[in-house]
Amino acid sequence: MSIRTVGILGGGQLARMLALSGYPLGLEAVILEPAPDACAAPVARHIKARYDDIQAMETLCDTSDVITWEFENVPDKSAHFLASRKKVYPPPAALAVSQDRFSEKTLFTRLGIAVPAFHTVDSREDLVNGLEKTGFPAVLKTRRMGYDGKGQAVIRNEEDIDRSLQLTGTHSCILEDFVPFTREISIIAARSNSGETVFYPLSENTHRDGILRYARCTFNDPRQKEAESMIRRILNELSYTGVLALELFDTPGGLLANEMAPRVHNSGHWTIEGSVTSQFENHMRAVAGLPLGSTAARGPVAMLNCIGAMPDREQVLAIEGAHYHDYGKKPRVGRKVGHITVCAAHDAELAERLEAIRRLLPDS
Ligand code: AMP
Predict the structure, then answer these.
(1) Which CATH architecture has domain 5-88?
(2) Which of 21, 93, 250, 310 could form a disulfide with 281 if both were Cys (CB 3.0 to 4.6 A apart)?
């Protein structure tokens, strides 16, 4: 069957960029999203309802040839309901893994993918026992629903113990070794139904206050093959279809996996202008059963997130090589409202252009 309509659970900026990348391929998007002012609403048909509304999910199934999602915290009930009626990509098993940091790290370990040492924590006693193994500092994270650094705390000494338990609340947690990484990187890959797999060049990422600020495409990174081997094992294990991202810590002893995202990823937004085929287009191609496109980078490229508010459009666009992405969201402290991609002919030019853009960003 020739796929024409892709249903997307969620209607944020990722759904918007997926929908936009689908149109030239003859693919229309339908989003299921409760927010009336969803970012993707101007570019997709909008079913306004909760993610677990049965009637709305039925409508989504009736109007879509295939279904995907833009966030990993899809309710279990919804994933099962949708999968029982329609082809759903990536496979719901990927959701179950990525929704729980313990399942995720257990899977990685089983596949021979190195991770920071981790221990489950369900009580103060577990935490104290865990800290005896990790020592200080260590990182306590809620097993579920943590994102952008929320639901986690660094424990540097005895006094931090109770404060960290307050932060994580009553949730089940994992305690991890604090990794003194040299840099944070991510690998993004796309896999088709038939097992064809393509990898983007590694992205080197900078976070502040737990939020991604800056992502840069690397060239011939010495860790590229190691990262590809890690993500390939996950893709094959899950018989995955679509785009998968894996966040990694680079250390002198090798890469350690932090977490995976079974979806398009913020650290790959530079692929829209910076790659032959963007992560969004490759995800749409994969779920629609179309051949995957080249992931090659066109040249030096990087992305800056706009947090809180957008910079002035005219000033940004006056900078050669700059591409403005406004998600149409209301400004709010700490909110991702857009991003700017910068392309250049060589590294020095890229650095110069980035500096000019940083000066225009309201939060930098
Ligand atoms: P996460 O929510 O797991 O992606 O963590 C958010 C950020 O916290 C990461 O991007 C790292 O900068 C930092 N972080 C998370 N886990 C660790 C760790 N075990 N050691 C050091 N830093 C960490």
Answers:
(1) 3-Layer(aba) Sandwich (3.40)
(2) 21
Query: 201 CA distance to ligand 1 centroid (A)?
Result: 21
pLDDT tens digits, one per residue of 102-139: 999 999 999 999 999 999 999 999 999 999 999 999 99
Q: Find the helix packing angle between 13-22 and 279-287, rounded to 10°.
A: 70
Q: Provide the residue ranges of all domains of the chain, joining segments of one domain with +.
A: 5-88, 117-177, 183-358
Q: pLDDT tens digits for 32-48?
A: 999 999 999 999 999 99
Choose which CATH entry (3.30.1490.20, 3.40.50.2300, 3.40.47.10, 3.40.50.11440) describes domain 117-177: 3.30.1490.20
**In angstroms, what is the span from residue 254 Cα to ligand 1's centroid?**
16
Distance between CA atoms of residues 184 and 279, nearest Å: 19
Query: How far does the centroid of ligand 1 lie from the alpha carbon of residue 88, in Å?
Result: 30
Say what the pTM is: 0.97
Which residues touch 45 (CB under 8 Å, ≥6 apart)? 28, 29, 30, 31, 63
Same fold for the pair 5-88 and 117-177: no
Q: Which residue has the tokens 């650094």?
A: 149
CA nearest ligand 1 atom 19, residue: 178
- Protein residue with least CA distance to atom 1, ligand 1: 149
Give yes or no for residue 5 CB within 6 A of ligand 1: no
